Task: structure prediction
Amino acid sequence: RKEVEQDPGPFNVPEGATVAFNCTYSNSASQSFFWYRQDCRKEPKLLMSVYSSGNEDGRFTAQLNRASQYISLLIRDSKLSDSATYLCVVSSNDMRFGAGTRLTVKP
Amino acid sequence: NAGVTQTPKFRILKIGQSMTLQCAQDMNHNYMYWYRQDPGMGLKLIYYSVGAGITDKGEVPNGYNVSRSTTEDFPLRLELAAPSQTSVYFCASSYRIREETQYFGPGTRLLVL
Result:
C-alpha cells in the first residue's frame, strides 16, 4: 500500500463547478498535511496547509479526518486557471507526496 | 529574492557519464532537499541537508551524492548515469523543521540514453 494515495483523475469539470479531491495516508503518526499545486512542467507550489479543525482560503476548503486517515480539498466555483495537478503531502519524519490528481476546468 | 534556482534546465547524458545538478537558494533557509519526480509518480526524496556540512539520505539515495559546503548551495552529483535516473529533479528549501512549507526550484529535466 502506498503511503499517500490519490485518485489520479483526470477530473474534467465545467467552469463554475464544485470539485472535491480525497487523499488517504497510511502512517497514523503523520503530523502535518498540505495541498500543493503543480502546473504542467512546473515546480510544486504550496496551495494550503491542512489543519485539524479544517480551513478555508477563498474558494478552497481543506479538511482533515485523522480517525479515517484522509484529507480532502474542495474547490468551489472552478476557474479555468484552477487547471493543474493537486498533490497531497503528508509529513511525519519527512514529507511524503502523493502522485497527484489532475484537474481540467473547461469553458 | 530569486528564491530557489536550479541549473541546468535540461540535460541529456549518455550511460556512464557523470554530472552535477546545481541548486542555490537566497532565503537563508537551513533545510534543503533533492527530489525526483517520475511520470505519474509522487516526488521521492533523494537527499536532504539540515545545514552547512550536514547531509543525510532520503528514500532513494542510490546512485547520487550531495554536499553542503554553504547555506546557499546544495549540488547533487550523479556519478555513473543510468537510464533509471531519467527523471525531473527538484531542489527545495525550508527555513526550519523539515515538515514546514517547502519552496521548490523550477526543476532539471534529465534524460539518460
User: Anything to note?
Assistant: The CA atoms of residues 24 and 70 of chain A lie 4 Å apart. Chain A has a mean pLDDT of 93.
